Predict the structure.
Amino acid sequence: MSIAVTDSFERTKDRPLDSSILVQTVSDLKSAKKPYNGQIAWVESTKKHYFYHSSHPVNPVTGKWKVLIEDASTTPTEITGPGRPDQPNTTSGKITGSEANGTRYVSTDGANVGAWVWLKTGNKWRVVTGDTGWVTVSRAINLLPGSVMKMRRLNDNVLVSIGNPSNWGLMGYKGKKTSGFSYRKTNTVDIIRPNGIPDGWVGTGATLPLYEDNGWAVNAIFYITGHSDARYADIRMIGKGTTVPDNGVDNLRFSQLSYVVDDREPWPYNLSL
């Protein structure tokens, strides 16, 4: 039941009469008690007005509150905050899901995966300035002791290197009779098992010849696959009927391999390889 008054209220402090129309965070807004259809509220952390209606679809960040349409001249085209905008819950309320295409998001912590600057295009967030740094691939198998595989995501490119820093940067792979050797085919050396390349690192497939250091003959081919071929990496012997040698090879030059990630790839969610 409403209360009839014959005069207006006079505020004595710089606060609204209804505390629910001015809140500090989007989380406070989402948890507001008994919002009514058409209610408008201001969120201090995002500097935006939101309106509520019970017919709105539920947003994981704002609930049934939506950002009011703002004048284009006052709508920010760049937002700065923590985390990554493709996961709004990591941005401390900076991202609500209503950002227009063309909006840039500058992450203050790179989401701990080197994802620093994002751009929203086609209603999807993608990294335009990012660098994971070199990440050791701990899941790599069948490399000789000392040979280390590393990968690096740099914007839309992935770099791959394999080498032994204690052996002039040369790499080596195990042979059939080497302890710990594991294989699926007689003419290939598995390096990353099928479905072993995680999201954020998958391309469309790339190859690299492996040269012997004592004469530069091509010994084998390194192959890394994409979504259409089970997301793995291996070393393939050259020549029909050629099989993996018994004792492996330890004098190969692995020139740095580079490939472009598949269009569907997100930025890596962690640096576990």
About this structure: The mean pLDDT is 88. DSSP finds one helix and 18 strands in the chain.
